Amino acid sequence: MSRWFKQDKWMSATLLAAAVAGLTLAGTGYWTLWQSQNETADDAWAPALVAFPERRPLAEFILVDDAKRVFDLKALQSRWSFLFFGFMYCPDICPTTLYDLSKVKENLLQRGLNDEDLQFVFISVDPARDKAAKLQRYVEYFDPSFLATTGSVGQLTNLTRQLGAPFRAEPETAENVYEVTHSSAIYVVDPEGRYAGIISPPFVAADVAGQFVSLYESIPATTLALAR
Length: 228
Fold this sequence. Notes:
There is one protein chain. The protein is of the alpha+beta class and about 230 residues long. Helix content is about 40%, strand content about 20%. The chain has one domain (about 1-225): Glutaredoxin. It contains 7 helices and 10 strands. A hairpin with a 4-residue loop joins strand 2 (about 60-65) and strand 3 (about 70). Mean pLDDT is about 85; it is low at about 1-10 and about 15-45.
């Protein structure tokens, strides 16, 4: 029992450290650097959000969310979804991006968008270590409404291939200690379950939100209401 207690204690400390690291990185140098570069050299950067002229319907997949409910294609319908792939032991990109997403959501709500029309989903590509209860605690550090999911490697690959978001578990450096290589982009799916666009770093919340609004307005509110 003592071994598992120590591991759980260590995991809690790791989650807290990851969240604090993300907040620190995004709230200080990382955030300031990208904001200042964006303000002084707007023309040097591509748009934060690239919307596809033709949206591609996604094929069926089956994952499990942090409440152990099925998360499938239907879960991506009736609202706009922001999907980010990562893993809980990720030391930098994942906590920083989740913090950025919390600011994107905050900015969108300030612009008058409806919270019910949006969902932010963290998809763990490390199912061997990232279990439902721990995933829930992890995403709640950034926003209580964020959803976390994972699934078998086969089902994860099924979805990531459709979005062009490859991942790979690297060799262990010690027992159960390894990195997972994954995409740093955010994938946008529309309320009809179609791959609609991609958001690439650096993430400036105001820019992402501003560019997303036109996508959001491309589907009438009546369509969203009927889809529910």
